[in-house]
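New to this. Please check both lines:
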Amino acid sequence: MAKPDLREFCGGALLTAGGVGFAAYAAMHYTIGTATRMGPGMVPVILGVLLALFGLMIAAGAFLRAARMDEIRIVVPLIISASILAFAVLIRPMGMIPAVFACVVIATLAEGKFRPVVSFTLAAVLSVTAWLIFVVLLQLPIAMINWPF
């Protein structure tokens, strides 16, 4: 039998631990309620349990295939964190569409090869999707474009 993929096992175990932790915290600090009268803890508990189940599936999948050594790129989590930070910094002064656009473009820099056409197309599609979901469907009062210049 081949050696299990240790990185995938550890990732699944971390997801499982995080899901169990979030579900346990929500169950202890918020009322869950019933299916017909949900309390504030219902959604966090369900999401925590789902996260834990997905983590178990990932951890179990590590034993079904052989380990492989991929290149470890430490810059990827930094780029993804920068994209989240860019969204947080830009959402109020610039509006949602520029914030989503910048977030997606920065996140696509985490790929090994930057493809501008794909990156800008994805950013445009996700910006329109965010507008449809949050403004049209949910009718949230979010500024779409707020140029401070």
In short: Residues 75-137 form one domain.
